[in-house]
Amino acid sequence: MAGDNEETALKEARRRERQVTLENADSDIGFCGWLLVGLSLLLVLFTLPLSIWMCIKIVKEYERAIIFRLGRILRGGAKGPGLFFIVPCTDSFINVDMRTITFDIPPQEVLTKDSVTVSVDGVVYYRVQNATLAVANITNADAATRLLAQTTLRNVLGTKNLAEILSDREEIAHSMQSSLDDATDDWGIKVERVEIKDVKLPLQLQRAMAAEAEASREARAKVIAAEGEMNASRALKEASLVIAESPSALQLRYLQTLNTIAAEKNSTIIFPLPLEMMQGFIKH
């Protein structure tokens, strides 16, 4: 936990350093720049109160404005939310949406570590964490993040075999999030969440896996049946030993069998008689 906090603090410090480097002081615009700014301010004063509407700008709660003065970012970073002022003719601004953005990763054909081709798609949640870096360091942060997510998905899944892809989706998503977050840190983007949506297997592989699963179930069923027969045979052996020790138990079992047969309402019943009952007749 302490290591993660130190790493986060180090990233934040580097991000601040890059932002300070980008934000130049107003004096960097030079003499000509200050001359143009002064002329713009005079023009605003001469055209009051109409010009005030060109100076006042408003950004919403979920937006930030990056102001450029003669092409340079103003010190202070992003402005907003709320009201801010610009100098006409010399200042321009770009609005940056700070809300969380969601996009789907198109299905990617990936060759796994065990040489199986699968189609995998996912979803990524990210937001702009530093508006200044998102404007100054990347042309199109959204498009760059989408392309990077596709390549990262292929790279991460290429190091996994099929069983790991099917069972360890959460670990794969966490690995993708870490890789994307590190890569987009210079762009002022924070990747908040990555999810693997679906893993599509080739039809032949699905049939092979289904056949393998069926064979495994049949094998388990045969093992269970064999174990049941073994337990039954042990129980019969123990019962025979008990009956052998007590002849009366055999007679009781015989009578119970007759009772069971009589309850079935058969028209013809054939049953053997114990030899002990026939000895009297045999002597005569």
UniProtKB/TrEMBL annotation:
<feature type="transmembrane region" description="Helical">
    <location>
        <begin position="34"/>
        <end position="56"/>
    </location>
</feature>
<dbReference type="Pfam" id="PF01145">
    <property type="entry name" value="Band_7"/>
</dbReference>
<dbReference type="InterPro" id="IPR001972">
    <property type="entry name" value="Stomatin_HflK_fam"/>
</dbReference>
<comment type="similarity">
    <text>Belongs to the band 7/mec-2 family.</text>
</comment>
<protein>
    <recommendedName>
        <fullName>Band 7 domain-containing protein</fullName>
    </recommendedName>
</protein>
<dbReference type="InterPro" id="IPR036013">
    <property type="entry name" value="Band_7/SPFH_dom_sf"/>
</dbReference>
<dbReference type="InterPro" id="IPR018080">
    <property type="entry name" value="Band_7/stomatin-like_CS"/>
</dbReference>
<keyword id="KW-0812">Transmembrane</keyword>
<feature type="domain" description="Band 7">
    <location>
        <begin position="54"/>
        <end position="213"/>
    </location>
</feature>
<dbReference type="GO" id="GO:0005886">
    <property type="term" value="C:plasma membrane"/>
</dbReference>
<keyword id="KW-0472">Membrane</keyword>
<keyword id="KW-1133">Transmembrane helix</keyword>
<dbReference type="InterPro" id="IPR043202">
    <property type="entry name" value="Band-7_stomatin-like"/>
</dbReference>
<dbReference type="InterPro" id="IPR001107">
    <property type="entry name" value="Band_7"/>
</dbReference>
